[in-house]
Design brief:
Elements: E1 2-10, E2 16-23, E3 29-33, E4 38-45, E5 51-53, H1 61-66, E6 74-75, E7 81-82, E8 86-89, E9 92-95, E10 104-105, E11 118-122, E12 126-133, E13 144-152, E14 157-164, E15 170-171, E16 175-176, E17 194-197, E18 201-205, E19 211-217, E20 229-230, H2 240-245, E21 249-253, E22 261-267, E23 273-279, E24 283-287, E25 295-296, E26 302-303, E27 310-314, E28 329-330, E29 336-346
Antiparallel strand pairs: 1-2, 2-3, 3-4, 4-5, 6-16, 7-10, 8-9, 11-12, 12-13, 13-14, 14-29, 15-28, 17-20, 17-22, 18-19, 18-21, 21-24, 22-23, 23-29, 24-27, 25-26
Amino acid sequence: MGMISGSFGVTSKGKEATLYTITNKSGMSISVTDFGATLVKVMVPDKNDEYLDVVLGYDNVTGYENGTLFFGASVGRCANRIGGAKFTINGKTYYLEKNDYSNNLHSGTDFYNKRMWEVRSKNYESITFTLHSRGGDQGFPGALDMEVKYTLTENNEIKIEYYSVPSEDTIINMTNHSYFNLNGHDSGSAMNQEVGIAAEYFTKTDIQSIPTGEIVAVEDTPMDFRVKKPLGRDIEEQYEPLIFGRGYDHNWVLENNGKFDKVAEMSSNESGIVMEVYTDLPGMQLYTGNFVENEIGKNGAVYDVRHGVCFETQYFPDAINKDNFKSPLCPAGENYRTITVFKFGVE
């Protein structure tokens, strides 16, 4: 129980990265690094009381520096997509990098997860990373200090808290981009694992994954996860959103009404591991790793398409440009504060 730290390698800019590992009394542990405030490893017991690492990732900082798949990443200032790579606040239009067709993805290529963060504080159960983001950073108005706090509780919960106060009205939409596989990061396809999502609707997108603004009922579609089902059961259906996304890569409209609540669950019959997802955010992107191909990860594991699954809690994609979506706008001087929890157990 407690925290240990050690070298995680040196970046191409000569910066030493550190890996921090927190272990609770029951033996679960998480490892995070100050490069990108990234979640690197999650060791949880399976039904045979053997420990499995259930997140995809790399052995050292070089993998994270060179990787393009956002394994374990803290994504900001605005996660997901902004259509046309532009938005307007207070009558002024801001232009962002077009790094996904003509759109902006995860704020452009000067990503938060490719930067060194500082350790603001740490103790036996938590660590808080901070990153200064100047006004104009990535094209966004307003300076801020983004905090990401990871806590490992005695209830086998990974609690991720985000906090910031911007100097100007701006968009903030942080998320964690971990890819989970409850049979172990190196176990191959996750499509036999079951997922449930507390959502009656999802946001329809165009072929470039930008929401049309339409909110569509999941009933009688492959997008219905109100009852848990294997991820692979409907993923190959000839359904336009699945064809556009090459699988699941969509935002679900959560039923938590802005209150912190359980919004999703994933489980594996093979390992017996169950993961529950809690958040206070209005949306969640379920992404089934449709663009992962032949990626060399931890301990020489080769990750391929659909080997891991992301549960990216968020404001809806392109919400700043959609009047009917809850706005990710954070006014100057106000607190941006949100929390997401991944809770592990065995059934």
